[in-house]
Write a structure and sequence with these properties.
This protein is mainly alpha-helical. The protein is built from 7 helices and no strands. The protein is globular, with a radius of gyration of 18 Å.
């Protein structure tokens, strides 16, 4: 129970970094959850994030697992509320304001300026996860192969995830 205020502060803050999606907040989540508060290890965080990517619904529901890990069911509830409530309220009001500013001359410039910010945050998240998951030649080759196939084809990534899991099991058991 003593961790609840820390969980609220961390995940309310992370909530505001999710411009472009949950991946945008991952580097800061790693810094706060793993490096600063030591609530879990980096591999544990990556595993939770991976499960969140595979599970139906919002991928950032994986944060409930962090809350559960740290402070039980109450931690899971607090983390979900702290993460989704601030951005939900902010999106509601910004959406209303954005609609009223439909003919404002700066609106297009703001939208075009936020696109590279979102891409940069997503790229930072991908690099952060890559640093924790690409640990040798075997994992680098799997990553390069999957990335190459996805970029070269329009293949659904689900079979690639399955094949990567089998390869990972065989190579790293």
């Amino acid at each position: 129970m003593k961790e609840l205020p820390g969980l609220i502060a961390v995940f309310a803050y992370l909530s505001l970094l999710t411009v472009g999606g949950g991946m945008a907040a991952f580097p800061e989540m790693k810094t706060l959850v793993v490096d600063e508060h030591h609530w879990m290890t980096f591999p544990q965080l990556i595993h939770l994030y991976s499960i969140g990517q595979l599970a139906p619904g919002p991928n950032m529901m994986m944060i409930a697992g962090i809350g559960q890990w740290v402070a039980g069911p109450m931690g899971a509830l607090v983390v979900v509320l702290a993460f989704f409530l601030p951005t939900g309220i902010l999106a509601l009001y910004v959406g209303r304001l954005w609609k009223r500013l439909d003919h404002w001359p700066w609106r297009d410039s703001i939208q075009r300026g936020l696109a590279p910010v979102s891409i940069g945050l997503l790229l930072a998240g991908a690099i952060s996860i890559g640093k924790g998951t690409i640990t040798g030649w075997n994992s680098a080759m799997i990553t390069a192969a999957v990335c190459g196939i996805i970029l070269a084809t329009r293949m659904n990534p689900i079979p690639l995830i399955g094949a990567s899991a089998v390869l990972g099991y065989l190579l790293f058991k």
